[in-house]
Amino acid sequence: MIPIDLQILKYIFMEKPIYYFKMKPYFQTSEYHDLCMYITNRSDTQNSDRLDKRDYTVFDLETTGFLPEIGHEILSIGAVRMNGNSEKLDEMHQLIKPIRPVPNHILSLTNLSRDALNQAPSFLEGFQRFLTFSENSTLVAHPAHFDVRFLRAMVKRWKLPEYSPPCIDSQQMAKYALPDVSHRLDPLLHYFNIHSLERHHALNDANMTADLFSELLLIMKKEHNITTYSVLQQLLNRQKS
Q1: Which residues of 199-213 are buried (b: 16+ CB within 10 A; e: fewer)?
Q2: Distance between CA atoms of 98 and 82, rounded to whole angstroms?
Q3: I want to staple 55 with a disulfide (CB 3.0 to 4.6 A). Which of 60, 137, 155, 216 is the partner?
Q4: Is 71 helix (H, G, I), strand (E, B) or coil?
Q5: Per-residue confidence (pLDDT) for residue 5, from 0 to 100
Q6: What's the predicted TM-score (pTM) here?
Q7: What is the pLDDT of residues 39-80, one digit of tens each?
Q8: Contact 126, 62 (CB under 8 A)
Q9: Is 4-240 a CATH 2.40.50.100 domain?
Q10: pLDDT digits (tens, 9 = 90+) for 3-31
Q11: In terms of C-beta density within 10 A (0-12 exposed, 13-18 middle, 19 or more buried), how is residue 146 classed?
């Protein structure tokens, strides 16, 4: 694997201009300008601070790497819409066409094919679908500091308006609620006896994370008397700091 400092130099001097050249035609389209307006005017406010009265979009990304800041891209988004009573309301799975070629080991890990990815819509179209799906909900990811950060970095790369959705990090919740259990997804699924689906498939991982999130919400309510989003966020922010 190329050392990270060389990856950064390669991105700055070789790949970043290629990204911009290939994205530039999209910036002139009406779809791009409509998406900019949608993000600017979009509201993620909810009617209640109570955790059991909110809607959630539990999501997962499959990507070409861990560092969007040096050109790694999103290949697929899986998302599950659920309410505060742990009822799953809807789900979506969206492939996204990457700008740059996908490494073979990533295709093998995600079980995605080049043909399917080449026929998929652009990030702009895929992100628009995700925004519509998740509107007026709180995002949940495991860990959110990866998935939400990745989305925001992609938004910045595509020169879209700033995207700062309300979100909950289920990994941080697990660290607080179950300090003696590994906070990685697989051990937590085993701990709660959650049915395991094929991993590294965005929708499968989102469904399993949704089941895990439901269990963590119950622990927060019954064992720690945490029933509001604002209190939960204060607790998780203190834990991170």
Answers
A1: eebbbbbbbbbbbbb
A2: 29
A3: 137
A4: coil
A5: 78
A6: 0.94
A7: 999 877 787 899 999 999 999 999 999 999 999 999 999 999
A8: no
A9: no
A10: 777 887 888 888 889 999 999 999 999 99
A11: middle
CA distance 233 to 209: 18
Place of tokens 């439901």: 214
Residue reference for tokens 């259990």: 181
- For 111: left if phi > 0, alpha if psi spans -120 to 50, otherwise beta; the answer is left
Domain ranges of the chain: 4-240
- Residue 49 CA to its chain's centroid (Å): 22
> What pLDDT, on a 0 to 100 scale, did the predictor assign at position 22?
93
DSSP 76-120: EEEEEEEETT--EEEEEEEE---SSPPPHHHHHHHT--HHHHHTS
At 88-106, the pLDDT tens digits run: 999 999 999 999 999 999 9
